[in-house]
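Why this split exists: single-chain examples teach little about how molecules sit against one another. For that reason, every record in the complexes split bundles all components of an assembly together and asks for one structure covering all of them. Below is a record exactly as it appears in the raw files.
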Amino acid sequence: MRMQQVFRVCNSCRHILQRKLIQPLPQVSQALSYTTEPTRYTVSYEDFKYVQDMLPPSRIPEPPTHGSYPTPSGWVAPSEKAPDLPYFISRTKFHVLPIVEKEKPRDQPVTVVFYIDGDIWALEKELKELIRPYVEFDPATRVHEVTRSITLKGHHAEVIEKFLYAKGF
Amino acid sequence: YFRFKMKLCCRKLISPARFILQSIQSRNSHVNREDFIPPNLVMAKVNPLLHNVTIQEVPKISDKIPVFRHCVEKLPKNKNAISVWLDNLLHARPQYNSVVQLHPVLFDTHPRMDILHSVVRWQQEYREVDYSWSRTRAEIGRGKKKPWPQKGTGRARHGSSNSPLWVKGGISQGPRGPRASFYELNPNTLLDGLLIALSIKHIQNDLIIIESAQISQDMPDFDEYLENRNLSEASMLLVHAENENISYLEHLAEDSKLLNIMPLYGLNVCSILKHDKLVLSRCILDELEHKVLWHKTRYPWLGSPHNFYIDMP
């Protein structure tokens, strides 16, 4: 029943619309008609500098120098010269230490340190000694020389980060 | 029959290597030669031990030598700029006058062979199309009728001669139509592959940097240039800038089998590895360095939600 009612209303509307269309359109007066002449304008680039100030850089900028470290967020700048050690850890493109905590493989908590240059085994020895008080058993590590990474069992990112900041990386 | 087979097996067991060799020899005729050495075992084209070649000693680079070109981008803290002798196509004999500095991110990366392999495999595979195609039982075009009645003939029951069990029947699970093997690699992996290829060329002393690729017709003999550097048998890839005039160099490349030229935008991993030596024009170094370092330090989310940046290349 409702559908029939809707249909009836629609039909009546259609009649009204058609009636309106049939009525003659009001004629446009000549004064309002469009002219074919192009509009006059001038090009100016003066205000484009305000646009350029708003545009962001495509490259990640260098971090600003702070008065004291660590900053409120806990970030520490690397030392100006590379520390005199057999190994070196370079920062990521976001100027953060390349330490990752994850639950892999098989949901095991694991910490991975990337971007290691030089003697990777010397760093592995020091990291083992570093996390020894925090684990119940002998600290388990895995050294991957091809991908230049060290994997440690358990979540130790904070400890390693403090250690590497102190070294100057 | 069984004994005969056993004898065959025994013979195979006694000299399996000979059997394999024979089977290979029948396939490849060039292996029959006694002095054949597989190409993967040949170390270099000009072996100083076999051929009596006088090797010119390259002098060591000291700090006093003037530096022709400095690095544009910022260096990593743990590495110094690499200095390489600058060569010139116009000099018949190498003149160790000036030095060019190269960026360590480009020419001193960690050589990840797995990344290099994935890039080479991608370059060889992405452009290939598999055209192999076989007819299914619906496309044979015959076998509409039942070959023989179901019962009474004493033969196996069959409803159609197109069945894959039949000889000249349709093929099931066969290759179907043109299949593109195109896939995309991560652009970061592609860039890493290029840098690894470049640094391998540098590590193996196969990198030559020339002052410019623009040479006129009155330059000295090109063969003499190659002989003085022991390059007469080495294949070379010369990479030049786009604004350089290389009309005469194109003539040289057309005549010689071993020289190929390429603008910077054509530089790729496969052709670097294919040639023995990589010759870079000094003019491309700035652009190459800027492009690579921009990609290394760019925001990964560029292009979304907009594409308007101050220093977008």
